[in-house]
Amino acid sequence: MSTARPALWQLAALACYGAALALLIPRHEPWFDEAQAWLLARDADLFELYAHWLRYEGNPGLWHALLVPLARGGAPFASMHVLAALFAFAGAVVFVLRAPFPAWVRALFPFTYFPLYQYAVVARPYALAPLVLFALAAIWPRRFERPFALAALLAALALASVHCWLIAAGLGALHVYELLSHRRELGAHALQQHALAMSALLAVGAFVALVLWPPNDHTMVVPGFALHPDRGFAVAWRFSSSSLTEIAPLSLAVIAASLPILAARRVLATFVLPAALLIAFAATKAYSEWHEGMLFLLWVFALWVAFARERDEHERAWTAGAALAALAAVLLVHASWALRSARYDWSESYSGAPAVARHLAETTTEPDTIFALGFGAFAVQPYFESNRFDNYRARTGGAFLDSSASAPWLNEYEAVLRARPDVVIVGVKGVDEQPLLVEPERLFPGYVPRVFRGALFWKNRVLEYDAYVVYRSTGRETR
User: Fold this and answer.
1) How many Å apart are CA 406 and CA 147, to the nearest integer?
2) Is the pLDDT of residue 64 over 90?
């Protein structure tokens, strides 16, 4: 590890990055996915969290474990974003100080879309990934000398998210293969240490697999794996292209330009094996735009490992330049996405949930009954000390969403209409629900509606609504 003092440009880049996070985070309105993790950490029994609830979340639970002291210790909901920012900043520090790239790459990278915004300002488990991946990249050349550090980082990666688990599985399998190939050079003592470290890693991986395996009554995940030729391959290509540039010819050029250096410096498998697992998972099980950053980070990780190796005498002279050109193209595209997302979140509402919570705090008192419709309404719950929805668990139990088939999903419009509560919160997510924002009074006669707008911004566009309509009864029942 280098002990050189940071250069002035490195300190300046990190200071600017930290300032950007400090400015953007207070302007960000958390949405359902951010709220759900906090509510689980706050309200779920710790044993049941790992034995039961995380199976419905598709997350191994490291993020939730980090949130538990904050959520149960009385810290405000906003502290979750401070935690995410700290991890994002730590990841930027490792990259700026340790990455084997030219200075312009190290200075630009923190200001691209995933490190600056989607995996930093938006507080989700993915905020853990850059730090762990880059720390792993920093020790990768000496992984045979540091088996326990390698195993610890791969275990932390596996515990961050299902996609991180897939990357850790690919890298772990590759390391074991290379370990067996070099077993005669390592000696008995080193092999024993590696065996112990990899056994511990395998145990963590098995634990994660048990936590991640979705139950049969999961209402948001289809059981099993299935590759549909009319969809699977299209999803695989979309995942691959969108993680880089979203421009198909440019993404192809980037892949073509970066593969030669990976092959020449014998690290191609470091990228291909984990990438194949990520793409296969997207094509056969679940794909979402939110996952694209993991393939991007893996690509950067592989290039890091390649550039950390000395140039082979048989390597063509242009391979490094081609890879840097590809890296420049991707980083510039991602920087434009970061700028547009930051600008949107600064001036517009990412989610209407915080405004709804403030409105309820100002206009309702404890005897008032509050009903909710739509799972997005749970983004309002962290701003109350306990479950505030009278039509969910009768206001007893945790305030988080239970996505099992036996749980009430807050989608029974007729039941709410008959109950005539004092307040109804309706979450508006899909584009087809836009009429609710235009003529909200049609949904609940005898109620006065108030619209709270919000939309999830993705890269350079609005992805979906995250708006709400709050209906307050006028006291007159209308049929």
Assistant:
1) 45
2) yes
